[in-house]
Amino acid sequence: MPVIKDVVCTLCGCLCDDLEVTVENNKITKVGKACKLGRAKTMGPFLHERIEKPMIRKNGELEECSYDEAITKAAEILVAAKRPMSYGWCSTSCEAIEKAVLLAEETGSLIDSTANVCHGPSALAAQEKGAPTCSLGTPKNYADLIIFWGCNPVHAHPRHQTRYSTMAKGAFTPNGKKDKKMVVVDPRNTDTAKKADLLLQLKPGTDYVLIEALRAIVNGHEDVLPDEIAGLPKAKVLEFAEMCKAAKFGVLYFGMGITQTRGRYKSGDNVSSLISDLNQITKFVMIGMRGHYNVTGFGQVAAWETGFPMAIDFSRGYPYYNPGETGTNDVLMRREVDAFITGAADPGAHFPQESIKHLFKIPAIQVDGYANPTTEFSDVVIPAAIAGVECDGTAYRMDCQPIRLKKLVETTFKSDEEILTEIIAKVRELKGAEGAKGGA
Amino acid sequence: MAEMIIKNGVVYDPKNGIDGEKNEICIKDGKIVENVGAGAKIVDAEGCVVMAGGVDGHTHCAGKINTGRVMSPHDMRYAPIPGLSGEEPRTKLLRPQVGYNTPNTYAIGYRYSKLGYTSIAEAAITPMMARHMHEEFEEIPILDKLGLVLMGSNWQVMQYIQDKDPEKLKAYMAWVLLAARGYGVKIVNPGGGSSWTWGKNVSGLDDKVVDFDVTPADILIGLAEANEALNLPHSIHVHCNNLGMPGNISTTLDTMKLLEKVKTKRDRQVMHVTHVQFNAYTGTSWMDFASGAPDVADYINKHDHLTFDMGQLIFGPAMTMTADGPTEYRNARMFDAKWSNYDQELEDAGGVVPLNYTSQHFAHATMWSIGLELALLVKDPWKVMFTTDNPNGGAFVNYPEGQALLMSDKKRQEVIAGFPDMTMDRISLPNIDRELGWGEIATMTRAMSAKMLGLDDKGHLGVGADADVAIYDIQPDKVDPSVEHEKVKKALSFAKYTIKGGEIVVRDGEITATPKGKVYWVNAYENGIVQAEKDRLMTDLEERFAKYYSIQLSNYMVEDAYLPRPVEIRPEVA
Amino acid sequence: MQTVTLTPKRSPTISIEAELITPDAFAGKSAAEIGAIGAWEGNEEITLADIFDVAVDGSGDAAETKIVIDGDVPRVKRIGEAMTAGEIVVKGNVDMRCGARMSGGSITVEGDADSWVGREMTGGEILVKGNAAYYAGGGYRGETCGMRGGKLTIEGDVLDFLGEHMCGGEIVVKGNARLLPGVLNWSGTIVIEGDTTLPGGEMKSGTIFVKGKVLEMLPSYKDEGTEEVDGVTYRKYIGDLSRNGEGVLYVSV
Hints:
Chain A contains 17 helices and 22 strands. By secondary structure, chain A is an alpha/beta fold. In chain A, strand 21 and strand 22 form a beta hairpin. In chain A, helix 3 packs across helix 12, helix 4 packs across helix 11 and helix 8 crosses helix 9. Chain A starts with a strand and ends in a 9-residue tail after the last helix. Chain B is of the alpha/beta class. Chain B has a single domain, classed as TIM Barrel, CATH 3.20.20. In chain B, strand 22 and strand 23 form a beta hairpin. The longest helix of chain B has 17 residues. In chain C, 5% of the residues lie in helices and 36% in strands. In chain C, a hairpin with a 2-residue loop joins strand 3 and strand 4. The N and C termini of chain C lie far apart (48 Å). Classes of the chains: A alpha/beta, B alpha/beta, C mainly beta. Chains A and C meet through helix 4, helix 8 and helix 11 of A and loops of C.
């Protein structure tokens, strides 16, 4: 049976590229080396139902229609809108994302990624302080101190610790875990924390405070710190700081505990500064544990095409950027958006109540392989091929490493890239414009 | 196919010995030809300057720049030069443009074209990140492009040099260019990028790299010899150790002297030294630092084995981005600036830090002078490429400013008059009255850069060259560049015509067409390395990928899909 | 003296960007000319006459021009942007970025102001009688310097990040400031008469007065004892020592 090697997983930001996929009669029957999540994603089309046909909602019910009808309806909705919003595009290829950006430009839309409810603050942190980081293979070879701050890789990035961090073996870490210490900073005693050499179970919402204390210690001002910091005894904070200073190479992996707790991006940007301060003493880096396998790709593509990694407003013809003003939930909760297109994401499952209420009221287009909560409020549903399984393209790993996704099976479903290209063509027809030739 | 004839131009084509002659340029099917038919489209240059399209042999335009973009949302609205910076909405023909130091890809393509440039070289990319560079290349309109691949702090390179295995090094160098679809060999702070993974650096040519038994000198010689053994079109391209440090002139001169012993069969330099301004400082600290340009220029005047580029400073905000990781950290701490860092496993380091240069600070004023001194004190323009190390010294849209300064002593003195007193003892520029002419400018911005890179069909207007032409709205017999700095600057900023591959892409400073350019890369592996050496190399690489890399070997190689319009160059095997 | 009265005709849900509602743009113009001035409603270009009834009384230059917006404009952004002189009075609520990059003149908002009021202002005065949301007196993304000069007064409460990246000028909040006021400030003075949480995060230098309660202090400030300023006794803290800062935080006792 043909086994395709070095297949790239399309679930999480680890973007493991060593999967071994068995294909029989154009069906994936086995996925080797992947974690549970990766296996489920790769075999997805063959494990459960998917959206089979394009649909348009008529009298409250979704009815099957042709691709042409769906594409036309989608284009009509977008062309008529004064404040259309394009959202998601994170579980798809960069080639599709480029088309999504072009479509947003041509329709004077806003466009944003799933980072709006996730690592968006990490981009803001980079804008405040920079991003002192490295490729995933660097800590694999060098790091003797691994810190997981506000993230739980055992569940969210299952192979991270074996491939890249705690258990990984490399040039200067030939004994894997034995050569390293692992620290978890989290209000919860998670499954990752249970294996930590040190757990700092801080009070929820005090990450910023703890970072401030750590910087004060690193910069020689521990004497001003109170006896209790972030719900932790000062001695424990000092112990952690000493571990950091004594490390030969420290890496801080961070997740929602840094990006989405009190203070939001201020915590992330303060971590950047902490890393910079620590580098006066020893080598230290930070890496964001990006969730979706190509949310990083969205940030990269959007940045080179528009100058900004997310939350872009094209209504004035040139991109404007101001998270808090131009982020997806910012405009949804103000009920400004009058048309919505989403692909490769599930806002229905992840957005705040206020946003969802509004999404039910406006025309919405969904491009996806699978039905999900987003389908409930969508008025046009266009089934798509699954990138990395049914079509190829580029994805960027959490550390910004680009890897090419493979096409494993043949399909009759159109890719996100093809669908967006057709919507763009229809939009141009409706607007009577030739559109930009450059780059299109 | 399309025929065109450019009439009434005053042509500067230094490669072919043409220095301001009223010649016609004939174009057919995207190439310069001897003659065209009567039906050829006529482009009337109206007595204006005609040159080959500009060739920027060192610019940070694809790859690391993206980190710079994400760090600089405020740069996107910054518009110090109308028409070449800030926000411009989309039009029927053009995508939206933003930025100044870190513009979006469309702005890069359009603005270089407005400047009359038609080819650019991304100055530094690690092999592992090359796919990203190619993705950005594809979104830069109009221009032809190539990428220089970092090798100077690479584990395999250092190991093979340490093992005294030049055949393996040669095979690896060729393989890396194939893997990255790269064009040439870039070396930044040799060895230092690897030491930086431990937070350390190398202090000079003879300082051992941490964990390896090699020195920067070993790395430079090893890579230079492999480069010549492979007969690559470009020489090694070197960013010296100790960049940005007072007293670094000794390292720079030592580096230049070191390469005297390497020979090449090609008609070109053995080493191109980049942005030398940042490496030409005398003194022991920022208090006594001064211009080392006279000494560096003296050496270059006496030796023919190198070329260099200026790295000219432009006052105002700049964005530094370089593989010189330790220097960037130092910058960030010194100026309390934002700091991005990237350690690329096994391959090199990197950093991005925003800086601001002001004429009111004696150090910046001195640095500004050094760049110009280097270009003016080196006698042979074929050794000098004009750059600002975009955007490290300043954004490329300021090239006309810098080039116009080279042509006008009067303007330079005006600027110097505004410098703080502390500058005056440190610089020689006040006493240099040389003014470059159009022919010399043409040499430094296209003719020598094409030659230095080994691009035979670029940078000149001889028969067989690519039909990449720039016509600047300035009549050399009517305008004196020595006096009319503003006119020169304006003419160089908004070309009367830019022609790319025989197609008019700029007319009176506006983009008229947006064809897609080609990507040049060098394949010295397929035919250039014998099978036995290939096998030996792959055995070693397979083990290294399994043990150290975080990506599979088969997924590392840049795929054909990323180069839709490649120009593959296979050097002749010895 | 010129007085221009804009009476809102409708209540849009989509934000209008009207950065030309400034004394500088209106000075010396007739009602018809002002009505013809462009604005944007989402991706559609409109004119001010589409959303306002315009009345003009008298004529004058920018410094002599007063604009009265006679009603609620919670969905009109960028009012007063980059104005250099003159006066604007909004008799109601106003949307984001009111008075951004203002360098002179005055703006009075009788209702609430949405986020980024006075963003990057360098001069002039803004008074908000109601509340002002996030980033009052803040900067633009990526800039290390936000508000540089002028005076911003908010009589109600503000939300998070008041005066982020402040580089000069003065901010007074009579109510509460929710979280991290004065974060990353370099200079300037902030006075909070109500309560606040974690004031002066990563302050490099500058001054913050808190007359109400600090509900939570940062751990990295150094207590220097008490000091009297203008007849009021404060506890004086130096910081933020997380970044070797030399700012001063006065907290009333």
